[in-house]
Amino acid sequence: MSAEPRTVAPPAAVPPAAAVAHRPLDLTLLAVAIAGVSFSAPLIAATAAPALAIAFWRNAMAIGVLTPFVLRSNLGELRRMGRRSLLLSVAAGATLALHFGLWLPSLSMTSVATSTALCTTTPIWTTIILRIRGHRPPRMVWAGTLLAVVGVIILTGIDMSTDTRALAGDALALGAGMAAAAYVLLGAEVRRTASTTAYTYICYSTTAVALLVACLVSGASLGGYSGETWLKLVALTVAAQLLGHSLLNRVVHGLGPSTTSTAILLETPGAALIAALWLGQTPPAMAYPALGVILAGLALVILADRRSSPVPADLPATPGGV
């Protein structure tokens, strides 16, 4: 990330005016992305494969889908990509692999509720990192971030245990939330100059390689699954990876990391509702009030970003092409 001093907020934190003009489209794509990642937990729960292998295959399959598009339209861009953007993309892929590698094992070490609540502290770390980098997030961003996290805690609860294994799982989940914050911020930085396809191709490739190594070291089985399991892995790739993470990488350039990372908190109630409809798991009584609290927090963050990046009157009201 850039280290030179700035007298104004960095573009990675506050979207430029031209990008703000595209905000309605970005918000729509953000909603699709959240719906996509909300399928992640229910699909993982229903897939009979090791957690690390699931994480590997969702990235590897995404690379398989992206490769024809990259070969046709993005080879020139990849060749021209500067060393800094390339290294940041690789770093983003490594932090995404770290996120998966920390969070998925934590689910078997501590309660799912505690793991989810600790992992979704991502927007807090995003805001703190932005502050360390010199950007001063408006008070409404802090208030909205904390309010949204409170909404997740209302939904999941945090049942802190004194068991050593559970505490280790809690630490892994918290680390996963920090890794996700670094992933969002690195992606926002790269997306200032690189297309979504070029960035995600390098990012997912790095993630897949890192997770492949993790699977080989841990002995996680990478094959021998049933046809139903493979179909679920394909569904997970399409929903959570291509429609989820890829669209998050697309909108972070326009909406900024604060709004994007806060919106990811909606994955928790979204997953609960999907599990209720698909797996027959009744959502907790506080699911709907918690959703309202999360949405209120997200609204504060979006409003704060909008106030800090007003759209000039001479910009067109209708966004251009994607």
TrEMBL record:
Q: Which domain of life is it from?
A: Bacteria
- Keyword Transmembrane in the entry? The reply is yes
Q: Does the keyword Flavoprotein apply?
A: no
TM ranges are 27-49, 55-73, 85-104, 110-129, 141-160, 166-186, 198-223, 285-304
* InterPro entries, A to Z: EamA_dom, EmrE-like
For the EamA domain, which residue ranges apply?
27-156, 168-302
- This protein's UniProt keywords: Membrane, Transmembrane, Transmembrane helix
Which family, according to UniProt? Belongs to the EamA transporter family.
The protein here is known as DMT family transporter
